[in-house]
Amino acid sequence: MRIDIVSIFPQYLAPVQLSLVGRAQSDGLIDIEIHDLRDAATDRHRTVDDEPYGGGPGMVMTPEPWGVTLDRLLRPDSLLVVPTPSGRRFDQRTATAWADRRHLVFACGRYEGIDTRVMEYYRPRVDLAEVCIGDYVLAGGEAATLVMVEAVTRLLPGVVGNVQSIVDDSFADGDMESLLEGPVYTRPAKWRGMEVPSILLSGDHGSIARWRRDQAWQRTRQMRPDLPPRGGTSSGPVPD
Ligand code: 6GU
User: Fold this and answer.
1) Residue 87 CA: which ligand 1 atom is closest?
2) Closest to 167 in 3D by CA, of 152, 151, 153, 178
3) Within 13 Å of residue 57, how many CA atoms lie on the same side as its CB?
4) What pTM did the predictor assign?
5) Could you tell me the sign of the dihedral formed by the alpha carbons of 34, 65, 91, 183, in that order?
6) In angstroms, rounded to a whole number, what is the distance separating the alpha carbons of residues 67 and 100?
7) CA 219 to each of CA 111, 173, 213: distance values in angstroms, whole numbers, following the listed order
8) pLDDT tens, 33-82?
9) Rounded to 5, what percent of the chain is helix, strand, coil?
10) Chain-centroid distance, C-alpha 126
11) In the chain, % of residues over pLDDT 90
12) Distances (CA, A) of 106 to 18, 73, 190
């Protein structure tokens, strides 16, 4: 997969060189390039914003540098992603769909956003997704892009070593009907007076699987009462 990211703060995207996404790049599983929007500005101050028509607070990103940059990057098979708090919600289902794409282009807006004509221009020409990552407002699309790139990258074949760790994920089936992951433990068996639940030391894999499902069900009810009441292969608490 090829990923291009356009931003006026290219250093903000430096973390894509690290951790799981960085390793996927050095392993040749993805190819990420970061572009400075200001390289397409034409005046000596490299201006990319202006006052909003109709008045109001803040500044709007001008369409010209976006047009020059996106014309250069987009291909017929691209998905153009515009992170914005006024977009549709990005979730695990979105990540799964994007993981099948050949080319993602992230257009990170700052200020009050990008002149709407940019989205109008590209919508009939490429696949376009205006997405938000949650119900809160960020100062720009960069942090959201890091979130989405990581969510998509870890779904690509060969990026996560153990396939089961993806299958077991919270929200793994993408329709928000799976359970949140329950508690996990490792050595030492006793820490600050707290023991690991004895069932995990029992070697009884059937009982361990049922206990984990029950723990996941309880955690889901407690932390996310908004999620649908059934999920995965469990339809409720284990009766004992
Ligand atoms: Cl994608 N962008 C911005 N600026 N704020 C957000 C967001 C995106 N998602 C949630 N808040």
Assistant:
1) 1
2) 178
3) 0
4) 0.93
5) positive
6) 26
7) 38, 18, 10
8) 999 999 999 999 999 999 999 999 999 999 999 999 999 999 999 999 99
9) 35, 20, 45
10) 21
11) 86
12) 19, 10, 47
Concerning whether 85 is annotated as a catalytic residue, the answer is: yes
Asked whether residue 85 carries a pLDDT value surpassing 50, the answer given is yes
The closest alpha carbon to 6, from 145, 127, 103, belongs to: 145
Say how many C-beta atoms besides its own lie within 10 A of residue 215's C-beta: 19
Q: Residue 154 catalytic? A: yes
Q: Quote the CA–CA distance of 144 and 134 in Å, as a whole number.
A: 9
Do 81 and 105 meet the contact criterion of CB atoms below 8 Å apart?
yes
56: β partners: none
Give me 11's structure tokens.
């250093």
Contact criterion met (CB below 8 Å) for 182 and 215? yes
**Residues comprising the chain, all counted:** 240
Q: How much distance in Å is there from the Cα of 17 to the middle of ligand 1?
A: 22
pLDDT band at residue 238 using 50, 70 and 90 as cut-offs: low
Distance separating alpha carbons of residues 87 and 68, to the nearest angstrom: 23
Confirm whether 76 is a catalytic residue: no
Q: How far is CA 224 from the centre of its chain?
A: 20
Instruction: Print burial letters for 105-133: b (CB count within 10 Å at least 16), e (below 16).
Output: bbbbbbbebbbeebbebbeeebebbbbbb
**Which atom of ligand 1 is nearest to 138's Cα?**
5
**What confidence tens digit (pLDDT) does each residue in 121-177 have?**
999 999 999 999 999 999 999 999 999 999 999 999 999 988 777 877 777 764 445
Task: Determine which one of 52, 85, 91, 224 is catalytic.
Answer: 85
DSSP state of 201: G
